[in-house]
Amino acid sequence: MLRGLVKGNNAFVPTAALRVAVGGGVDVAALLVTERGRVRGDSDIVFPGAPVHPSGAVRLSAAAEGDEAGTVWLDADLTAVEEAITRVLVVTSTDDGSLRDTPGLSVRVVGPDGSAVVAYEVTDAGDETAMVLAELYRRAGGWKFRAVGQGYADGLTGLATDHGVEVGEEPEDAPLQQDGTSPGPEAPLPETGEPLPEPVAALPEPEDAPPAPAAPQALPHASKAAGPPAQIPAQAPAAQAPAKLPATHPAAAGPGPGPWPVALDLPVPTHWPYAGNVFEPRALEGSGSDVLDVAGLPPGPVLVDLAVRTDGHTAVWTLTAANKEEDLLVNSGKKDWQGRLLAVVPLNGRLRLKLTAAGPWHARVLPLAAARRLTEDTLESWGPEVLLHTGEATDVAFHYRGDTNFIVDSYDLSGHEDPAELPEHRYPYINEIGRRREALPVPGGTVLVHVQRGDGPWRARLKQPSAAVAWLRRVRD
């Protein structure tokens, strides 16, 4: 016989494999807690991203035939619950308003024979967005059900904190030394999965290299392709020798033609708006200040790999059709500069870049599809770079070891349809000075992550969220 309870009431239930039905169209999870009222770790959270507890005792299951719309089922085999677990909390949450706006919020327990044993209907929900709806708990050698109805105005974050769910710090990368390398075999660098570049012969010294101009003291605001405004210290640091590059960095062998990996054989991402913007890489070389002029390109964003052997100042501007300087892409006083730039080819298909440099240089123009892919493996680089993320919402962890501006922004390409333009850059972005660890949140889908400034070595990888992070993800976003 069904026994309806009010908030705070409890009743014995069979110590058997029970089914718990939650109505109201809300999200449902279960927390398995000890006598201290806390989970032991992420594995004690059962939610759609981790629908089965490791013990197999608690799981989310498919709706039954004839269920009302919005019903979610939780199977709880009380005979299989580990001894250390004293309570199984039935947790609900909503993204649509508050629980007050959720009609039919209720829970009922069904026995092994299919008959309803006990039920609880929530009638006093308020502005809360998350709630411990009910609990199954040990008592006198058996199990009882309690109608809890405890809401949390601060949502899953407050509920999780009360029950010991901790979003731990991500494991740190192996530390980088001042020169950008790892300290030794005890902390080897993770494999990036990309082929090492072929060695490149050093370029001959120019006979009459022009004197290097003084490095400017400020970085003007870059335009749409360049992202957020630059943050500048009160006194720009003097030019100095760059840190030693990791062996995997394309510039480690010195500037030269073709040292960069080109990932044109990678599959085109889903919803990729630039599928038609594929062309053979264009190579250029020269010495000293010059204009890089490449015609016959498809309009839209492209990658420009540039390596300059210099002891002086390097700057790169995009040029308008009227030959006016427009976007400042590079402004560096570092020696032997190298990086991958993001530029936009105008509708006439002709890319023109003004290069200020003292020394020989090599450049390549590549389609955007050649961008290096972000994964959970550590990716190492130096200087500006363009990276591609395809997947679920996550964070990109950066470890920067330079002493100048480190600026990273991103572009969400999901839903973007114009192959001749980039969408507006996203907020938030990273804009800091000097060595640091930072994380950039990126949405799910296809996203360009643009390291716009960074005269120094850095590492990047996708954070692999724990179960707790995944459960709280929509609250944090």
What is the secondary structure topology, with strand pairs?
Layout: E1 3-5, E2 10-13, E3 17-23, E4 27-33, E5 45-46, E6 58-61, E7 72-77, E8 87-93, E9 106-110, E10 116-121, E11 130-139, E12 142-152, H1 155-162, E13 282-287, E14 290-294, E15 300-308, E16 314-319, E17 325-332, E18 338-345, E19 351-356, E20 360-367, E21 372-373, E22 379-382, E23 385-391, E24 394-400, E25 405-412, E26 430-433, E27 436-442, E28 445-454, E29 457-462, H2 467-476
Parallel strand pairs: 1-10, 21-23
Antiparallel strand pairs: 2-12, 3-7, 3-9, 4-5, 4-8, 6-7, 8-11, 9-10, 11-12, 13-20, 14-19, 15-18, 15-20, 16-17, 16-19, 22-29, 23-28, 24-27, 24-29, 25-26, 25-28
Outline the structure in words.
This protein has 477 residues and is mostly beta strands. The protein has two domains: 3-162, sav2460 like domains (Lipoxygenase-1); 250-465, Jelly Rolls (Sandwich), CATH 2.60.120.380. It has two helices and 29 strands. The protein has a six-stranded mixed beta sheet, with no helix packed on it. A hairpin with a 5-residue loop joins strand 9 (106-110) and strand 10 (116-121). The longest helix is centred in the last third of the chain and has 10 residues, at 467-476. Residues 168-265 have low confidence and may be disordered.
What features would you highlight for this structure?
4% helix; 6-stranded antiparallel beta sheet; Jelly Rolls; 2 helices; 6-stranded mixed beta sheet; 2 domains; Lipoxygenase-1; 477 residues; mainly beta
Quick summary of this structure?
By secondary structure, the chain is mainly β. It has two domains: 3-162, sav2460 like domains (Lipoxygenase-1), CATH 2.60.60; 250-465, Jelly Rolls. 4% of the residues lie in helices and 38% in strands.
